[in-house]
Write a structure and sequence with these properties.
Blueprint (H helix, E strand, L loop, with lengths): L2 H21 L4 H33 L1 H22 L6 H33 L1 H34 L1
The structure holds fe (ii) ion (2 copies).
The site of one fe (ii) ion has 6 residues, from helix 1, helix 2 and helix 4.
């Protein structure tokens, strides 16, 4: 799959997790659980983008790429702040909302401007290749997690 398609699919998954957060408002334990999933998905997405796309996008449009890095950093700061905030604290919801606004703005800029720019410059073939690299990374991660699950199951059984 083309790299942009993979990254856009991840964007939709992130939006869905934010919607799920909205759906469990007031249920502390669920909010915390879904937020953990969301934080992990955001961190992985940003890491993948930086490693496989921004690294090449930097040559295409340096300023836009640096802006992207800064926005990722802002979102990471929000994640750290939210992790330290109790779900029972009124500020928890406010922080999640601001994080969503920052991320939504970032996603729109990527999809409307940055991705098309990088794709036009690097070309279809290169985007397919980067897509394969992304898939390889995701597959390796999935295998690693599966292994960890097996180990923790064995630990439980012992
Ligand atoms: Fe991004
Ligand atoms: Fe993104």
């Amino acid at each position: 799959m083309n790299a942009i398609e993979i990254l856009k699919t991840q964007h939709r998954e992130l939006e869905e997790l934010f919607d799920r957060m909205d759906g469990v408002k007031g249920q502390s334990r669920e909010e915390r659980r879904i937020f953990r999933q969301l934080a992990k998905a955001v961190e992985e997405h940003a890491h993948l983008e930086e490693r496989y796309l921004y690294s090449e996008g930097q040559e295409v449009d340096c300023a836009a790429t640096l802006e992207g890095y800064e926005e990722h950093e802002l979102v990471r700061i929000m994640i750290r702040k939210i992790k330290k905030t109790s779900t029972k604290d009124g500020a928890f919801g406010a922080k999640v909302k601001v994080m969503r606004e920052i991320l939504q703005h970032h996603i729109s800029e990527e999809e409307d401007e940055y991705f098309p720019l990088v794709e036009n410059s690097l070309g279809e073939d290169r985007m397919e290749q980067i897509g394969l690299e992304l898939e390889g990374h995701l597959n390796r991660r999935q295998k690693r997690e599966h292994k960890q699950e097996l180990v923790s199951e064995q630990t439980w059984a012992a």
